[in-house]
Design goal:
With 475 residues, the protein is an alpha/beta fold. The protein contains 13 helices and 22 strands. Strands 1, 2, 3, 4, 5, 6 and 17 form a 7-stranded mixed sheet that branches. The structure holds flavin-adenine dinucleotide and 1,4-dihydronicotinamide adenine dinucleotide. The site of 1,4-dihydronicotinamide adenine dinucleotide (NAI) has 25 residues, from helix 6 and strand 18.
Length: 475
């Protein structure tokens, strides 16, 4: 008779593998079961994030930015380069190598922490004191029993009827990270995070990029001022053609081209592309686990229903990451994984959902945490604004990245930091200071009185904090 584990984790993305490691660190016998296979048909841990998400997209963002800089930005530094050429195969091989190193690294981490790793698709068979799961690996079935189960099955790209993703001309994130040639004309449906990041990659490599977005507003989740600056930069300076308020009428794949018919306020249009990326959001992977068999409830949108501690309706069954409500972000998934592991071990696990940072890795980067100005207005909160432009930051100017700004929103009465919004160089790194400050419930004055190195990009946040206290020094 096989052992009964303390914990079975379903899914080895950043939610699942982190939960499994934390469980093992806390002395729980843990198995982590994952179904992902890479394009070579091999089991590959790390989920969406490591295989076809965060990591490969950032590798291509970096490579494409280097290509763009060598072509267009070195000259201003007095660095003369000629014959700059793209070797896309090498760029893709570098990306694949990084992915392989990281996915292999997860296998190593699981081994090191004595987490048993299994490949296959897990589904509930029965519940009670002990849960029974069936794990199917290409038709070969095994049974796993565990006292606690953590569902961390992630999400998949949302596909629409009008856009049959064929992996060739019409692709989702996986295909868009693996084109074998730069498409001269690239269409993207959805001006969300994937549309903007991957649109930037292929634009820098030479594609003419058109993004078709259903909503009438651009980057609705971001602070309005940040969204306005991003719109200006992406459309006017970088040449991304972004159409808002579109309604897609038809998507037709021919032999070499895809035709998209859509309507907007100006009427009906038809565009032809060499490739089309569908980036219209993601749907939770809840169907495969057979949740109903053990009383785990799934909401109308397919998310596994959980409370603020990621407890499902079934005793000792938890769910974390993209498969539950909230931001679909790797760090949110991981933090929930840690919280659940600690709760199972009898500790006081907790996630502070008010301070989850969001980063869009375009150039300039966009990052924020906490409330936007429009949210504070809608909530009737009295607030102060402090803002500092990167054009007045010495390090940013030296980098040749002087556009954008850092903005801090503080409570008008208490000075507590309510939100920080950055568009500019390394915004994704700079936001960490704001997250830490907010996690410690800091005031604007706390940041204003903290010494920041000179010259550094972080001085922009320092100045934004000074400005929120009406004592900016450099503007
Ligand atoms: P996943 O990473 O999706 O992992 C779930 C795993 O469970 C998968 O391996 C899946 O195969 C497996 N699975 C599913 N069902 C079963 C089953 N029944 N049995 C066994 N295994 C199963 N987030 C960021 O924070 N930063 C970024 O820069 C970022 N970039 C992204 C770029 C792209 C192109 C995409 C698509 C996403 C990006 N994300 C980013 C989002 C991030 O990838 C997800 O939020 C994160 O992967 C969610 O983690 P997870 O563990 O919940 O699920
Ligand atoms: P998204 O939710 O960010 O954007 C999807 C966009 O498509 C939205 O603007 C939506 O209005 C639009 N849309 C939906 N249906 C449409 C239609 N029929 N026609 C035209 N437009 C339509 O989702 P996206 O970009 O697919 O990314 C999925 C998830 O992955 C996001 O939730 C994000 O959190 C995560 N991600 C995070 C990254 C990061 O943290 N840097 C990078 C990439 C993805």
């Amino acid at each position: 008779m096989a052992q009964t584990y303390d914990v079975a984790v379903i899914g080895a993305g950043p939610g699942g593998y982190v939960a499994a490691i934390r469980c093992a660190q806390l002395g729980l016998d843990t198995v982590c079961i994952d179904a992902f296979k890479n394009p070579q048909g091999k089991a590959s841990l790390g989920g969406t994030c490591l295989n076809v998400g965060c990591i490969p997209s950032k590798a291509l963002l970096e490579s494409s930015e280097n290509f763009h800089k060598a072509k267009h930005e070195f000259a201003v530094h007095g660095v003369k380069v000629s014959g700059v050429a793209l070797d896309l195969a090498t760029m893709m091989a570098r990306k694949d190598k990084i992915v392989a190193q990281f996915t292999g690294g997860i296998a190593m981490l699981l081994r090191k922490n004595k987490v048993a790793a299994m490949h296959g698709t897990a589904r509930f068979v029965s519940g009670g004191e002990v849960y029974t799961l069936e794990v199917d690996d290409a038709g070969k079935q095994e049974t796993v029993t565990a006292r606690h189960v953590i569902i961390a099955t992630g999400s998949s790209p949302r596909h629409f009827d009008f856009s049959p993703v064929d992996g060739e001309l019409i692709v989702d994130n996986a295909g868009a990270l693996a084109f074998d040639a730069v498409p001269p004309r690239l269409g993207i449906i959805g001006a969300g995070v994937i549309g903007l990041e991957l649109g930037s990659v292929w634009r820098r490599l030479g594609s003419e990029v058109t993004i078709l977005e259903a909503l009438p507003t651009f980057l609705a989740a971001a602070d309005e001022q940040v969204a306005k600056e991003a719109w200006r930069t992406f459309t006017k300076e970088q040449g991304l053609a972004i159409q808002l308020g579109v309604k897609i009428a038809a998507v037709k794949a021919g032999k070499k081209q895809v035709t998209v018919e859509y309507a907007d306020a100006e009427g009906s249009h038809k565009l032809a592309f060499n490739r089309l990326i569908v980036a219209t959001g993601r749907v939770p992977n809840s169907a495969s686990v057979n949740a109903a068999a053990v009383g785990v409830e799934v909401d109308t949108r397919g998310f596994i229903a959980v409370d603020e501690h990621c407890r499902t309706h079934a005793p000792n069954v938890y769910a974390v990451g993209d498969v539950v409500r909230g931001a679909m972000l790797a760090h949110k998934a991981s933090e929930e994984g840690v919280m659940v592991a600690e709760l199972i071990a009898g500790q006081a696990g907790h996630v502070d959902y008010d301070v989850i940072p969001a980063v869009i890795y375009t150039a300039p980067e966009i990052a924020w945490v906490g409330k936007t100005e429009q949210q504070l207005k809608a909530d009737g909160v009295a607030y102060s604004v402090g803002q500092f432009p990167f054009s007045a930051n010495g390090r940013a100017r030296a980098l040749g990245a002087g556009s954008g700004f850092a903005k801090m929103l503080t409570d008008a009465a208490s000075d507590r930091i309510l939100g920080v919004h950055i568009i500019g160089p390394c915004a994704g790194e700079l936001i960490a200071e704001a997250v830490t400050a907010m996690a410690y419930q800091a005031s604007g004055e706390d940041v204003a009185r903290t010494i920041h190195a000179h010259p550094s990009l972080s001085e922009a946040l320092h100045e934004a904090a000074l400005a929120a206290n009406k004592r900016a020094l450099h503007i």
